[in-house]
């Protein structure tokens, strides 16, 4: 059976470490690098529920997109059972479950988060449009009205809800950014895009969309990134055919929507 160390090295072939942003934390973050892995679980995040699911399934490893610690939103200073993050880390360590995380390096990688998102949304010949290598843009085979495209995006990504702003343009040249990529809106405009699909957009971006001349679709952080889990599962299954690989059955979109009149 492969070791955690060997699996990490293989995942860095899929998503090279060099693509990692300087604030990020990727790779083998928790556990014994020499532990043999018979079964692993793939999930977008390592939550308490995912940890319990993996332990119950007999997994020795969880592979996630979002880092479990020491990135800009999870700066771990203590590891204590009486803290939210500490209790998660100690639970995994006591159960001998390791964690490998592939984040911004997987966003940027060829065949990673943004290429998968572009493929699902029907973008042909996607290419980068930012200096950082984040996001993809390209043309759809046929233009759609924005309401049609919003419905298509929602269904294709299995969204609970979609926020959008209509700039009065048909959807033809589309930029995508899996996760929180609102900072690249101007780059999408400069690339000649009429529509930008991403998540975590601000109120003022929606207010200014018509003036700036770009349709905005906030399809949610989880829906725009979660499809890459299937890519990691396919990669691991092919690379390690004797290792059992499963996707978390319980980790879902956390955000729910209430719309007046429903």
Short summary:
This protein is of the alpha/beta class and 262 residues long. Helices cover 34% and strands 22% of the residues. Helix 1 (4-14) packs across helix 10 (228-239).
Describe this entry's structure for a reader.
With 262 residues, the chain is of the alpha/beta class. It contains 10 helices and 11 strands. A 6-stranded mixed β-sheet has the order 5-6-8-9-10-7, sandwiched between helices. A 5-stranded mixed β-sheet has the order 1-4-3-2-11, sandwiched between helices. Helix 1 crosses helix 10. It is globular. 43% of the residues are buried. The model has no long low-confidence stretch (mean pLDDT 95).
Order of helices and strands: HEEHEHEHHEEHEEHEHEHHE
Sheet with the most strands, sense and barrel status: 6 strands, mixed
Cα Rg: 19 Å
Number of strands: 11
Helix/sheet category: alpha/beta
Terminus-to-terminus distance:
51 Å
Strand order of the largest sheet: 5-6-8-9-10-7
Mean pLDDT: 95
Strand percentage: 15-25%
Count the DSSP helices: 10
Helix content: 25-40%
Which helices and strands, and how do they pair?
Blueprint: H1 4-14, E1 27-30, E2 39-43, H2 48-56, E3 61-64, H3 84-94, E4 98-101, H4 104-108, H5 113-120, E5 123-127, E6 136-144, H6 146-156, E7 163-165, E8 171-180, H7 185-190, E9 195-199, H8 203-212, E10 215-218, H9 221-225, H10 228-239, E11 244-247
Helix pairs in contact: 1-10
Task: List the main descriptive attributes of the protein structure presented here.
alpha/beta; 262 residues; 10 helices; six-stranded mixed β-sheet; 34% helix; five-stranded mixed β-sheet
């Amino acid at each position: 059976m492969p070791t955690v160390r060997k699996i990490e090295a293989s995942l860095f072939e899929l998503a090279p470490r060099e693509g990692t942003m300087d604030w990020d934390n990727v790779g083998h973050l928790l556990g014994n690098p020499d532990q043999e892995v018979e079964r692993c679980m793939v999930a977008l995040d390592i939550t308490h529920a995912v940890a319990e699911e993996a332990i119950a399934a007999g997994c020795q490893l969880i592979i996630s997109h979002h880092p479990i610690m020491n990135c800009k939103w999870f700066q771990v200073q203590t590891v204590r059972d009486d803290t939210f993050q500490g209790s998660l880390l100690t639970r995994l360590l006591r159960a001998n479950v390791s964690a490998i995380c592939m984040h911004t390096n997987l966003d940027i990688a060829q065949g990673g988060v943004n290429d998968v998102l572009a493929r699902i949304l029907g973008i042909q010949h996607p290419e980068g449009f930012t200096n950082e290598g984040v996001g993809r843009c390209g043309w759809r085979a046929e233009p759609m009205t924005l309401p049609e495209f919003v419905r298509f995006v929602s269904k294709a990504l299995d969204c609970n809800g979609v926020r959008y702003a209509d700039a009065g343009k048909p959807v033809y040249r589309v930029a995508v950014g899996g996760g929180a990529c609102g900072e690249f809106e101007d780059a999408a405009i400069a690339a000649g895009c009429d529509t930008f699909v991403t998540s975590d957009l601000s109120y003022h971006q929606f207010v200014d969309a018509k003036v700036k001349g770009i349709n905005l679709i906030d399809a949610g952080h989880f829906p725009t990134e979660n499809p890459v889990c299937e890519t990691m599962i396919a990669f691991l299954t092919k690379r390690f055919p004797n290792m059992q690989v499963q996707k978390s059955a319980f980790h879902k979109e956390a955000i729910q929507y209430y719309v007046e009149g429903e």
